Amino acid sequence: QVTLKESGPVLVKPTETLTLTCTVSGFSLSNARMGVSWIRQPPGKALEWLAHIFSNDEKSYSTSLKSRLTISKDTSKSQVVLTMTNMDPVDTATYYCARMGAGAWWFDPWGQGTLVTVSS
Amino acid sequence: QSALTQPASVSGSPGQSITISCTGTSSDVGSYNLVSWYQQHPGKAPKLMIYEVSKRPSGVSNRFSGSKSGNTASLTISGLQAEDEADYYCCSYAGSSTLRFGGGTKLTVL
Fold first, then answer.
1. Which among B2, B51, B98 is the top mutation candidate for probing chain A, defined by the most A β-carbons within 10 Å of its own β-carbon?
2. Using a CB cutoff of 8 Å and minimum separation of 24, what contacts does A50-59 make?
């Protein structure tokens, strides 16, 4: 059974850097044609794709947030890490990670999500 | 890059069919057969319902179907059931290894 679980701080202050971890099970991040994306959803608002990373270490970022995002993976720990710098209250959202297949541009399954609030 | 355009809300009675549209541009929906649809119940993570415009993952009811014409993709739900009431999001590949979501549609089953 494939599962993903997000973890990280519940509360961050404005200007701080957010670090989120996605721990996967049921598949390996070293498997060819496998990847993980991060997606966020502000309260009551739509989904927004942020970034993805594939097993060959190919990475891609949202154009609008590229300067603030870094995605990486630790295959031995089955973890994908997303950092977002210079956090602002508008970044308050539930952050999800989800599995993707290389060349398979869809997300399945998703983690349960983690709510991050940005406030001083 | 703007989000794909979806109607804010649609509604239908049990047993009826509804269609949710997802309008993009020639840079995303119009150029790739890589549109997916997600169902999200309140407080829950999204669930994949349709991928590559019209393919259904294992376990998804055949009441859900997808199609595309030009820059607009559509999700049709036939035989509406109470449990179909949820938010629905489309997503399209947008080139250069990027993806774009729609603004979401709230489906109400009357």
1. B98
2. A50/A82, A50/A84, A50/A95, A51/A82, A52/A100, A52/B97, A52/B99, A53/A80, A54/A100, A54/A102, A55/A29, A55/A30, A55/A31, A55/A102, A56/A32, A56/A102, A58/A102, A58/B97
